[in-house]
Amino acid sequence: RPLRELTRDPLWKVVQQHPSAAVFPGEDGEGLAETQARAVAGVREWDARVATASGPDAVWVACSHGDVIKAVLADALGLHLDLFQRILVDPCSVSVVRYTETRPFVLRVNDTGGDVAALLPPKKGRRRRAEPSGDAPVGGGVGVSGKGPGGGGSGSSG
Asked: CA 20 to 30 Å from 135, out of 8, 86, 107, 153?
């Protein structure tokens, strides 16, 4: 439905002001809280499978709707779902989350710069990055390789 029509729907205000209480109508209606739980579980499960199969430097991409991406980012940032409308996710933007055993690290949000080369694993024969760690860099720096906590690795984009 067009946005101008959606903004007149009473559910619009709930989604904007108290998203964790929003439940979409219909026989298969799902709440935003359930959507977030399902999306986060799926992303974390897929990330673990890719890392197991391809190693800690593996990079993969997930594409989804803006609110789903914002819900995954809110989880990774430790934000309650009711705060996810504070996150901006433009169409075709890139957001990157790197999952570790300890915690996720949010490396990019709403990046529309176009250069994703820093997300790629090193070419064979080049010096290997340090093994990924769940520890935050001392002093809040950019990490061992300059690419983020633990030196890069798997993540999600959308």
From this structure: 86
pLDDT at 153 over 50: no
The set of residues, in sequence order, having a beta carbon less than 8 Å from that of 43 and lying 6+ positions away, is: 62, 72, 97, 156
Alpha-carbon span 147 to 141, nearest angstrom? 10
Q: Three-class SS of residue 31?
A: strand
The crossing angle, in degrees rounded to 10, of helices 32-54 and 66-77 is 70
User: Which tens digit of pLDDT belongs to each residue from 109-149?
Assistant: 999 987 888 888 777 765 555 555 677 766 665 544 444 44
CB count within 10 Å of CB 11 equals 12
| 8 Å CB contact between 109 and 87 | yes
**Phi/psi at 135 (5° precision):** -80, 140
